[in-house]
């Protein structure tokens, strides 16, 4: 490998890691939270702790244990009590906050029990209490409290039914918010009349607060009627469990109060701070790139679509930079982020980031001085132990030397084995954070 | 419609038309060609006409009639003779150059006859002749001269077979260059020892000279053996006509001279100038955008991929600009170009540009101050009379008012009817040029 390429590849990893550091759960909290002279500052908000009788900490998500630990370090014994629900093996020993571990992504009874503890604690909240709510990716499955008439199994069957219909995430949330005692602003409602401030690490494209963990502390503009219409629109209504249909019917008929809407009193003392987002990771990566001598260009933190198609577009930008120096003169670092999807047709092993890197490798074959990196910030890409992969203009030449046909690997969705054989997997181990994926194009001086 | 949006939409069309004007065949020729004091300048090349006994003009493609007319205006009676082959109804009355019309995209006997006339004329070319070769999109089907052993029907069957295999454009060209007396540098070989200069309007992503019209005047690095391997690799070898197999076999065995390779004497006096490319259109569009007060950002002229996926990525850039002002501060005009594809699953009516605009409309629903335009520079998008379509953040709201479900139109590949009902088709009529498509994102001050 040429020394230029070796340097580019090293820089690509350094830039990615700088992005990752910015959205580490502890770093994310510490970037926004300070306590000084009995005043708790969270971003631009200030809470004079003398105004509050108790501080309670609740939360759900894969990253909430380190977030809660960071809050304990800031607030120590000022925290009166707390409960968080996190994924198995994602807990940490905490002093004041009880940590419940539960199953993810398929919820289980331990998740329900943990969420009941949160609801019970919030039931005690009074006007002079401050509730700190920690939310991160995975919160939807971990903060799980079906309405009383409905069992966890019924709720899960409803979700599976929607999945089979190809419902959008918005449609999913509309339905599940209307089957829950925690989602869709219900948590804020439960905490009323206390003050509630949510610290959120976003794993959702667009960072919509009502989507992340199904928006437990923000207003819900959807209705029982919407939920019913969605299920009927997909022809799924008649396949629902009878008690689910009955609950939604009662809601539509106004016999159950709908989720709290914008303007509801429950949100008068509610605030939210996004402490970690994909854009923050891209900006930190861009700053590192600049330090290393590359002009950073942040294209978008809101990328969605089929992984191999997005990779092709990304490669088209690389080729334009190399041939006409549009949109920028190298050395340049083009950054984007979000979450792509893979339509699986083969039986290989891989993930959306590794497939992105494979498609990009094919599109930039032969190009000099270009590296493409696609990595998931949670450290796990698909059902593999890799976080993603790295490709360059010589990747295909190296594959050909090993008699590997990239088209064949792509057709079989076998990106993991492709990059494993080339030793080009990016392995980070579990990072305990998740702000989706980072896509990087690094082009050296030409 | 708000006055801001009306202005943005007007500007989007003005910017597109500025791009189009730059690649009009006549404008493209005139931008590069001048004659002064008996010196013909084509870009940086100069030809002292006193050094040449004859100027011959040949060419093939959908845009070569206006290109040839422009050359006649520059050179008048200095042109000794000429023959061009263009698509039916794409001819123009010329003075010195004979115009042959033929079928496109499926070649016919008139195309073969026209190409024979070109080859016969070049057969007479001598050392002190200057051959001006005009090439534009469509040249592959119009410059059609099967080798003697093979009929036009045999050659077409071979092409259909490759199409059914899903062969890449590179593989296609490797095979057809080895069944032709004009493609893959054979035209330059025929003109030898004359001087040959080609003026090329590119309709190919990446503007590769050996791909445009199958590279009649440039070296071909592929071999008879490669052609044979490609057909065998797809399991198509045994389905070929016996005389096609025999020809390729003889070539592989060295009994027929291969296409001329880089370094061949045939190219010693050969030169090429790209007089019109997608990038040139984007740059002219960018200049117009700047005049209208928008910061231009040229992302790539090399875009490929599924139309709706590319549109989603494009929309992600729009959303980032609106929410974080990355990569640029509005007002901004993001330009890209190339040629997307549509995987047809429905029975609707549309084209790749209209489908791009429909998918973009869905992705930017509700966004303020954004217009997306996707238009083919040839004026014809798919089997429709539209060149493309325009969408904005209010497009879906207007569709809903008419009880139109955009998801349904997209599923049925029915983008033409969608935009027809909203009066948002872009109609240019046939433009007589083709540098593929232009994708524009126009965002006003926010």
Provide structural commentary.
2 copies of one chain form a homodimer. Chain A is an alpha/beta fold. Helices cover 39% and strands 21% of the residues of chain A. Chain A folds into 2 domains: 3-18 and 279-443, 3-Layer(aba) Sandwich (glycerate kinase, domain 1); 25-145 and 180-222 and 259-276, 3-Layer(aba) Sandwich (Rossmann fold). Chain A is built from 16 helices and 15 strands. The first copy, chain A, has a 6-stranded parallel sheet with strand order 6-5-4-7-8-9, with helices on both faces. In chain A, α12 links the parallel β10 (295-303) and β11. Chain A is globular and about 65 Å long. The interface between A and B is medium-sized, with 27 and 27 residues.
CATH topology of the largest domain in chain A: Rossmann fold
Spatial separation of the terminal alpha carbons of chain A? 17 Å
The oligomerization state is: homodimer
Counting structural domains of chain A, the number is 2
- Tell me which CATH architecture of the largest domain in chain A applies here: 3-Layer(aba) Sandwich
CATH superfamily of the largest domain in chain A: Glycerate kinase, MOFRL-like N-terminal domain
What's the level 1 CATH class of the largest domain in chain A? Answer: Alpha Beta
Which regions of chain A have little confidence, pLDDT < 50, spanning 5+ residues?
none
Strand order of the largest sheet of chain A: 6-5-4-7-8-9
Describe the structure concisely:
By secondary structure, chain A is of the alpha/beta class. Chain A has helices at residues 3-22, 25-32, 64-75, 109-123, 139-142, 152-165, 169-177, 186-191, 224-233, 242-252, 278-291, 307-324, 352-363, 395-401, 406-411, 415-421, and strands at 33-36, 39-42, 45-48, 54-60, 79-87, 97-102, 129-135, 195-201, 270-276, 295-303, 332-338, 370-376, 388-392, 425-426, 437-443. The interface between A and B is medium-sized, with 27 and 27 residues.
